Amino acid sequence: MTDQNLQPQPSVAQASTTASASPSAPPAPTASAPGYAAAPVTSGAAPVVPGKGLGIAGLVLAIVLPLIGLIVSIVAKSKSKKAGVKNTPATAGIIVGAILTAVGIIIAIIAVSVSASLVGGVVEMCSELGAGVWEVDGVTYTCG
């Protein structure tokens, strides 16, 4: 090889300015691996779902305090529905809150009816025995 065949090579900075200035230059290579598409550019933050935090709070409250959790979950579901977003925790909170509220109402009705029958039994016994302190079958009744 002789020195006549060697031509001066432009520096990297010169080559990039030359390539970008030419209209027929190929596009600049991307940072992705060959054969794979480049990763989508994201802002890093997940999209905000209106009512999602409220839906989670409603679900937790539905387990602890069913009626309050039911109400909070309904509010969260309403906010999410207005935004057009699905809110699974709010839906679960509505279901759990409704079921546990119904169970609580049934238990309350049973407790009231049992209490009423017990009180009714005492009132009936006192009406038969009259005023005073009485002991019947090992049970002491104070009627007055």
From TrEMBL:
Residue ranges spanning the membrane: these are: 54-76, 88-112
Tell me which species this is from: Agromyces neolithicus
Region called Disordered, residue ranges = 1-28
Enumerate composition-biased segments (Low complexity).
10-23
Keyword annotations from UniProtKB, A to Z: Membrane, Transmembrane, Transmembrane helix
Record has Membrane as a keyword? yes
Lineage at the top is: Bacteria, Bacillati, Actinomycetota, Actinomycetes, Micrococcales
Q: What is this protein called?
A: DUF4190 domain-containing protein
